[in-house]
Structure formats: C-alpha cells, structure tokens
Amino acid sequence: MVVEARGPGSHYAVQPGLGDSYDTVAIAGYDGFARARQTFKPRAIPVLPGGGTPVLPPPAVVTDGAVYYADGDGVVRRLQPDGVVTQIADFGTSPQQELWFGVSPDGRRLAATVVTVPAAGGTWTVDLDTATPGAAVGRVSHTDLGAATPSPALIAGWDLGGPLLTLDTPLVAAAGYVGGWQYHGSGLAHLDSSNLPGPPLGGAGCMPWSSAPDGSILCVGSTLTVRDPAGNVLWTVPAGSFQAAGRALSPDAAHVATSTVVIALDGWAGKLPNGFVAEGWSDPDHLVGQIEDPAGKGDADYVTVGDALRGHNLGFAGVIVGGVPAPTGVSLGLASPSPSPSP
User: Fold this and answer.
1) Residue 301 maps to a domain
2) 282: Cβ–Cβ under 8 A, 6 or more apart, which residues?
3) What is the torsional sign of CA 186, 320, 57, 104?
4) Which site in 64, 74, 173, 298 is 20 to 30 Å from 148, CA atoms measured?
5) Mean residue pLDDT across the chain
6) Domains identified in the chain, total number
7) Taking a C-beta distance cutoff of 8 angstroms, is the pair 184, 208 a contact?
8) How far is it, in rounded angstroms, from Cα 219 to Cα 248?
C-alpha cells in the first residue's frame, strides 16, 4: 500500500510524518502497477503556536485485507484490492486538528485520538473516540492539556491485544528528529477497559521502535532487542554501526531492518543497496522503501530478505506504508489483467 502526493495542495516531506500531506492511496504489485487507487482530500498541516514542524501519523493503515485511509475532514474510508471504496467512520476534523487512528484486525472497530492544535495563547486538547463501521462516532473522553506543548498518549495502531497507544508522544519535531511512521514515544501500551493506557509493553527499559501484529516489539537503546509484550527477550540484534529504520520489525518478528543491513534472528545479515531507505514490510520476505532523494520523494523500491543487496525499482514516487494480503485466488505479483501504472 502506497501513499502519494499527486495534486495541488498535497506534498511529500523529507521524511514520512514530518508535515507531509498526501492525496492518493494505491495498492500496487511488485511490478510497480496499481491494482486499485483512490484520491482524497489531503490533510491540512496544523500551524504550531510556537512554530516548527508537526509530527504527524500515517494517513492510512492496512488491516483485514484492505486499506483504511483518512482524508482532510477526518473521514475514514476502506479501499479493497478490487477497487471498492466504503465510508467507514467520520471523525469530523478541522484544519487545526490531527487524527491518530487504529483499526482492529477484523476491521470491525476503530479507535482514534483527535489532537487540537491551538493558536498562540490557546490550549491543546485531545479527544478519544471510538467507532464501528457505518455507525456514529462515540466520544469517550475530552482532555484539556494546557497551553504548553504536550506529549500525550495517542492511538498508534492495533494488534492482537487491542488498540495501541504511544506514551509521551512528541508532537513537534526537535533537532535531529528521525521521521517515520511507527513509535516515537517513551513507551507503548494497550488501551485498557477503562479507556486509559495500560502498563507499558515490552518490560522495563523498552523504548518502542516498531511492532509486529502478534504484539512482538522492537525496543531500542544500547542494544536492539525483540521482546514479547511481557518483556521477555525473544532475540537480540547483534551490535553494529547502524540504526533501526522505518517499520523495522518484520510482520513475523524474524527480521529487523536497519539503515544499512537487514538482520535475521539467527544472526544472518544482508547488506542493503546503496541509497535504499527502508520504510516497512509488505510481507515477511519483502522489505520496502525508497531510493534516497534529498527532496523526500525517491522512487519506491523493494528487496527480498534472501537477496537484500539487489533493489527492485518500482518506477514511481510514493511512500510504501505496508502490505495488503491478496484476496483468495487473486495475485498481486507480476501478472495482472489490464493494470493501471502508478507513476
């Protein structure tokens, strides 16, 4: 699944999540051709009262064999691989609001936090909302965060344990901030039955970088460790002159992508092509990203874990967010009837 900036009012950023505004979502094959595509109203970039660049969530997520994407008005829609689009929920956001949302693995529930960015002298607020497809959005809580720039707990995804929140989430990019679209808070927690953050996942000292659908977490620090939600270390990434990159943990928690190599739990490491910027995984065997470009819009590219040094340029500019499992009997590989290119 790819997000693109194709029309007026949309744009890429140097790194995903740093004041970006996309207007197109597409489901593409490994041949670079789109199987389904939909345009939408791009989000407005909120003006921060103290200046700077806002840290923003991805406008789309993948679950239940489809793409769920949010437009500039806070409307979440579902794009299926066959091109069918369905409106799922309307969170009714304004230009000075940010929508952070997650969708359950079965697609039947949504959770969202809506951050309101004030004008100078105003107060920040955050609303916690829930929804089911086709029903009215329910407001769970409204919190006044004060005039100083806050670091709230925000919805950042959904795994088998429930909705995920990042704790102490930065809302403004500081000097040296590394962009990307997974976790940058001090911790990761599930939303509990009281609609509050539960205990931090991954145990003591886990600064979460990314996670897998089963709840495995990549924790960063002096070493990179893959842990289960309770904090048990599943495996440790060997030390090296690299750092985690993008949604670094593969869906099966068996590989970690870094700035220069991809590493397996058995210690195997494969060098990545020069200029390849890892962004995520389309499945356990394919690491996806971009060919580096100073303007932040290099061609989409992918490598396979068994042949990591050989890149496959997909021939279009876009940010690959994740993989969409093919419906039964449908291939999203090289063969496709009458594909439409995704330039």
Assistant:
1) yes
2) 288, 302, 320, 322, 323
3) negative
4) 74
5) 91
6) 1
7) no
8) 10
- Confirm whether 232 is domain-assigned: yes
DSSP string, 35-89: EEEEE-PPPP-PPPTT-S-BB---SEEEETTEEEEE-TTSEEEEE-TTS-EEEEE
Structure tokens at 137: 């959005």
Q: How many CA atoms lie within 13 A of 257 on its CB side?
A: 33
Residue type, 206: C
Residue 87 in tokens: 């409106």
The residues with which 278 forms a beta bridge, in sequence order, are 289
Would you call 241 helix, strand, or coil by DSSP? coil
Q: Is pLDDT of 327 > 80?
A: no
Residue 109 lies in a domain: no
Q: Are 151 and 185 in contact (CB under 8 A)?
A: yes
- Look at residue 98 and tell me if it is in a domain: no
Q: Which residues pair with 256 in a beta bridge?
A: 249, 263
Q: Classify the C-alpha dihedral 41-46-295-318 as positive or negative.
A: negative
Domain holding 229, by residue range, is: 203-324
CA distances from 79 to 64, 89, 157 (A): 11, 13, 18
pTM (2 decimals)?
0.92
Percent of the chain with pLDDT over 70: 94
